[in-house]
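[DERIVE STRUCTURE TOKENS]
===
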Amino acid sequence: MSTFAIGGDLDVHRLGFGAMRITGDGVWGAPRDHDTAIAVLRRAVELGVDLIDTADSYGPATSEELIAEALHPYADGLVVATKGGLERPGPGNWTRNGRPEHLREACEASLRRLRVDRIDLYQLHSPDPDVPYADSVGALRDLRDEGKIRHVGVSNVSVEQLGQARSIVEVATVQNRFNLTDRSSADVLAVCERDELGFFPWFPLAAGKLAEPGGALAQIAERHDATTGQVALAWLLGYSPVMLPIPGTGSIAHLEENVAAAGLALSAAELSELDAAA
């Protein structure tokens, strides 16, 4: 499995694990099966995953608590990235809060839940239209300067917002929606490629009609004796050297299937076939 150096000094395998799905239904509350959630996290590390992405809003708090329960003290080289800037007033509700005082409180709460003194990668979950973006990013810069954050990431940003963030603090990663059927962040990805920033594509397995029987994704999957999800992940890994997919699941079998996608090599012709069909 190929690697990428987040911020130039955190070497991780390019296929990580997204820890949103280990929570309860609707990303709310405790999982139905606590022991399975713990087992999934431990199995991910056994399989060589060394990048786990979560957020304080997953649960809320539940995902971070489970990660610490399952994996603390963390193995050398394991990067646990988290995010702040979204709140959960109730099931199905996601509200933005980019106020500097909230981000400070959120980061410090994440430090306690994850049982660490410094978070390797802390990401601003989304710009808040009610708060100047510079103020939100400035809060993360201050937390980094205080030693509570090692590297800063941003999420759900435009090229302009990424540029503004980088004028305030060194940005190591971007997390935007990107998959076979949604490449609306291609311009942001191009900046990441140019400047060697890591790019976390969220919702990585969406494939729409391509995954239906007879679709391009399904046909290629059949050729490789693979699943359509594995091919979708292999396509992402082949699309860009800065791509860091973080598929999530609450199932050990599905986890193992996702991790195996890192060993699936698509030909240039197959990559072109998927590009043309999307």
Notes: The mean pLDDT is 95.
